[in-house]
């Protein structure tokens, strides 16, 4: 198997795992699988993390990290 095939499989697995998080969080059901809503929310989240007010972005990152860790434990 070529190097490009191995890398492609790694990338595919990574994307599948990320999409699983969207489903596991209940976002698909809550939005009736409306991809515009899902994408818009993800853009909002990215903007929040890139916030010019570094403190706001850092607070969001810390809050979301803790909530995610707790959800994985549960």
From TrEMBL:
Residues 64-74 have a biased composition (Basic and acidic residues). InterPro entries: Conjugal_tfr_TraD_a-type. Residues 53-74 are annotated as: Disordered. It holds the Pfam family TraD. This is Conjugal transfer protein TraD.
């Amino acid at each position: 198997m070529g190097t490009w095939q191995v890398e492609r499989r790694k990338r595919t697995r990574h994307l599948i795992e990320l999409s699983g998080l969207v489903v596991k969080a209940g976002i698909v059901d809550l939005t009736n699988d409306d991809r515009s809503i899902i994408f818009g929310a993800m853009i909002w989240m990215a903007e929040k993390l890139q916030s010019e007010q570094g403190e706001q972005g850092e607070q969001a990152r810390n809050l979301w990290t803790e909530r995610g860790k707790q959800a994985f434990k549960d």
